[in-house]
Amino acid sequence: MFKPLILLLTGMTLVACQSNSLNNKYVNRYKDSLKPVSQVEKQIRKQYLIANDYFYGFDRKKNQKKACDIYESLAFKQDPESIHSYGNCFYFGEGREADNIKACDLYKQAANFGLASSQRDYAGCFKHNLHGQESIELALFWFKKAAQQGDDLALEYLEEIESGKAGYVKESPALALNTLESYAATSDEDAQLALAKIYSNDEIALYDLKKSIYWYKKAADQGNDEAEFEMGKAYQNGNVLEQDFEHAFYWFERAAIDEFVDAYYHLGNAYYLGKGVEEDKQEAKKWLQLSADNGNLKSLVFLQKLEKNTFPKTKDKL
């Protein structure tokens, strides 16, 4: 199921380009998007487009072995698009003998250059256990990277996994740990957030709330909205950090400003009860309404009580 989807994406112009006009439109658009900044890069892009012609049979007779030979030579020059395309040669078994391990290794190389399509396909390696390393943690990590760059297919896969519609994908926190730690050490906020989630899972041996808070704080300091929200909860609950409602409000407000919708309810709660901030019923109502508008039923019920003047008068949590 995975291969046809990648093939559809990689060669999505194959059918559309049956006419010369559509083919030229695709090639010209691709050339314009690359915008080389040096003669060396310009030559690499020119060779890359020639390889595409051979691989897909655009303006040249299809010769996938020759295409893969060109991709390979350009991959040695560290060209991300060529590295990814060379990976496709092994993945599809076109121009090279099929080899998922080699394909995934090449996707990884290109993913580390920040190429969204490679990040998506490398995530697929972990999702579908293509290289003997199934891991929902690393699949989510790389799908998220690609989705943040606007890769629609990666966003679709991400939503499927998070909603549980993608079927079972093995949890492998120990496998993911070393990879995520290496990226987290380079201030990668996605890796820091992923590590925090692993350590907060009380169903695994790696469970460690102190380490979880450490990584949430690292990500929150970089402006990660979900990590900001989790820091607010940590200060509100007082299980690891000393309970501090002012600090909780600070982090909930940052998360809410960053449009993390789960924070809206907590911010409204803080304003209503005067916890960590001066009591302000109008501000409370504003944030609770935003929360309700985003599907939070607790906020909706509370707003209905507010309208009927039957809201609680204690300083307990809503």
Describe this entry's structure for a reader.
The chain is mainly alpha-helical and 318 residues long. Helix content is 69%, strand content 0%. The chain is built from 18 helices and no strands. The protein starts with a helix and ends in an 11-residue tail after the last helix.
Main features:
mainly alpha; 318 residues; 18 helices
Quick structural gist:
With about 325 residues, the chain is mostly helical. It is about 70% helix and about 0% strand.
Helix content: 55-70%
SSE order: HHHHHHHHHHHHHHHHHH
Cα shape: elongated
Radius of gyration: 25 Å
Number of strands: 0
Mean pLDDT: 87
Q: Residue ranges: pLDDT <50 for 5 or more in a row?
A: 4-31, 314-318
Query: What is the helix tally?
Result: 18
Category from helices, strands and their pairing: mainly alpha
Task: Report the sheet-strand fraction.
Answer: under 5%
**Could you give a short account of the major beta sheet?**
none
Alpha-carbon distance between the termini? 46 Å
